[in-house]
Design goal:
single chain, mainly alpha, 3 helices
Amino acid sequence: MKDGAVQSLSEALIAKGVAFASRDGAGRPVFPEYARAEGAARSSRAGIWANDHFAHPYDERFRANRVMH
């Protein structure tokens, strides 16, 4: 619960910077609300975003290997 409303666990983890938003094959967020939570976590340098050397797995993995499983 957040502000009296139900919040998804995924969104809460992303907002805390312990997870990242998934992207589709074109690099667009699968769930826009998760991308907003990720953006806020990045801006506040929460969790994984506090490390200057962390690379979003989509950026690193997808561009190196475009094979989708």
